[in-house]
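User: Okay, second chain of the day. Same drill as before: sequence in, structure tokens out.
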Amino acid sequence: MLGLISARQAGLDDPLRLRRAESTRRVLSLELNKDRDVERIHGSGINTLDIEPVEGRYMLSGGSDGVIVLYDLENLTRGASYTCKALCSVGRGHPDVHKFSVETVQWYPHDTGMFTSSSFDKTLKIWDTNTLKSADAFHFKGTVYSHHMSPVATNHCLVAVGTKSPKVQLCDLKSGSFSHILQGHRQEVLAVAWSPRHEYVLATGSADGRVKLWDVRRASGCLTTLDQHNGEKSKASSEAANSAHTGRVNGLCYTNDGLHLLTTGTDDRMRLWNSFTGENTLVNYGKVCNESRKGLKFTISCGCDLEFAFVPYGSTIAVYTVFTGELITMLRGHYTAVNCCVFQPSFQELYSGSRDCNILAWIPALREPIPDDVSEKQTKILPFKISEMFHFGWGNKDKIF
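Assistant: Same drill. Structure tokens below.
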């Protein structure tokens, strides 16, 4: 680390290199923080979390009880121990509350004044954050499993919605009406995700085992259907041909540069795809336990030398390297199944929600201070000359530091 700082000060190194190295160190040292709590409001399992991208300060949660809670993550007391307080909530007594389980919440990508939520009550609701009232609502014929707004769109305000119907619905926030539908799946759509690189490209995952990429400007819509065998049909059964998973696809997440797409399925597999060619990169993550019958919310780190995937794995969270598939660690702290997790890129923090009604904060461990006696011992060694260090084989003459 000192070498990186020195190189940065001398102008010999890219300013981002130090930041990426420190971000990686912080992610690798994530631990359950005993000094930070998130106020417990939900009376049943927590299905979804989202942190707004503008300040990275406010977090939304949605529960199986239909309740939505807005939290302030900032430490206003400046104390060592503090609780992330709930600023407000859409509780059971609220006139616009969802009747059934909230499956997805998402902040409007460019402004904290609005957020969206979707529920098993067959609705997608648009909320005014300041008044905490529903500004608009879209009604569907089937259960709503997932929805997503593009984080980079400047020319449209479309919300993609996955429901019990095999048709993907697109809702236009500007007009307040349905825009059009995308047809191609055979069963319910459990997960949807807009590309963070191209505002018109959408990925969808279905219970039919297929993942499709769409360009919503095209009449036909579908760009490609991802194939786990990369077109080698001789190695695949007729049922598995042209499918991404042999089970239900219930999780999608793009890498932050939009170049790759990570998918999870109930076949206990996770796969990484080239989002341009549609090729399965064949990264082996091993068995990834996935017993969820609905959408699974996982996340990917941002700004590290190696990007990491945080995936609910029973009552734990598995941390994988995205491009090598290595299982780095298992984060343990919840009592029952974890349903969702969200990454805070500014401080490399992770928040997770579970059926145990708790939201846990995973914070990078602080570097432990060097004890005084160790510092004194190191000081006593300093009088050795560099030439003497080399004499005893402690250094390399070609590279001192």
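The helical segments are 2-9, 15-28, 372-381, 386-391.

User: Thanks, on to the next one.
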